[in-house]
Amino acid sequence: MPNKPPEPCSLAVTGIGVACGFGHGKPALWDGLLSAPNLFGFLGRPGRQPFAGQKRFIGIEMPDPPSVLAPRVERTVGLSGRVAVSVLNEAWQEADLDSFAPERIGLIVGGSNFSSRESALASDDDMARPGFISPRHGHEFLDFDLSGICTASFPIRGFSQTVNAASASGSAATIQAMEAVRSGRVDVCIALGGMQDVSALDLHRLRALGAMGSERYADTPNEACRPMSRDHDGFIFGEASAALVIERANSARSHYGILSGSAQIVDGNRGPQPDSAGQQRAARMALAEAGLCGEDIDYLNGHATGTPLGDETELESYRQLGLHGAWTNTTKSILGHGLSAAGSIELAALLLQMRHGILHPSRNLSPPLDDTLRWVGDTPQPHQIQKALKLSFGFGGINTALVIEAPSQGAPQS
Amino acid sequence: MDSHAISELLIKMIRRTVPELADHAIGRNDAMADLGVDSIERSEIIIATLETIGLEVPMVQLHGPRNIGELADRIHAKQTP
Fold first, then answer.
1. Which of A170, A238, A343, B62 has the most CB atoms within 10 Å of its CB?
2. Is there a contact between A72 and B19 if contact means CB atoms under 8 Å apart?
3. Among A73, A75, A137, which would you mutate to test the B interface (most chain B Cβ atoms within 10 Å of its Cβ)?
4. Is A3 a member of any domain?
């Protein structure tokens, strides 16, 4: 007997937890997005120093996360794990997930190699003293350890899994979480974009690939990250993580917005090559699911990393999709590129703008690559978002799109 | 290092590994399992102790002791073959 098709249902985001260069929690993110001070500097964490004779890396590092775990557990958990439980805790409290049966709560973590930097440091240590390797390193190297930390610390007993879609991992986690709720597998699902704690070697490799800037602004970190600007020369890393609670829309529960369309497709490229046709196909699929076309969108949050080919390709997609009328800004110009977490922290930024009725400024945009679009420049723009499009792309030909609509009339706002 | 000193070292590593036991009285007659130490923490404690005294012993040879005192005796015996 064929499976019964899932009933159409409206999905809402009812809780958000965030971590970024501005600190931990939504107030820090929102204040930071509005004032948009420079956060970019030279990366300083242990394990991120360039190899001899190489230029320093530019990016954003976040303050230490608040302590959520018992000391006994916290001792064993690395930075990406401590950040994950911090954002999970914030989203959990806001959505009051203690009121749900643990067996009806799911968790999807987006990303891979979350602890690359600390793992590299531990590897050096283990190789130097093989007789005394910590038994914990035997499970900490698995990507699933982040899920294990989260589900051991919060009453999540429905299911948990890790999904990887390169820089679209956060969006892929959101899409999988939507599916898990829509299918009835769980009543509520948390999509968590895990913090990509990159190592020096990761950064050297991304630089070798030509994806990461900045040759041009090697000595002026505040100017290095300039998505969609004519002077861009690559993406700039920024530590981030975010958790979003997704459930069926219920007029009695406060929510940030409605997720009314989603798509994740591959375009057949293996490496970093972008593909406008694939981007447009994903966007059109998500828009069709929401019953919309590009002209209906009044706010666009793009992938917009700042790589020359990536930005040009994406702009071509905007033009073909008819997004000229939509306001748009560049969240990565303020927060940097969170890699695995980018799609999650940027969806959080989109939903905060929707709630507050203000669009955050863009840094280092002038002169824009395409001045026919409706850019938010260097000052915030009052605008009540009604229908928004979020795009996230990843190496390996991944294109994702999400359509987000303002909360239904009469829904409680907070 | 004598067995008493080894047991003191084990207790120090127990407190470091499980900070919740920092103010808990721990002696040679206590078993780590009774203190709530889990199996991975037990391995961490023993490895940290062995590394401090510069002794390499396969973990499998340290199974069996019923309390901290017996474990210290076993490590002491490995130290002087």
1. A170
2. yes
3. A75
4. no
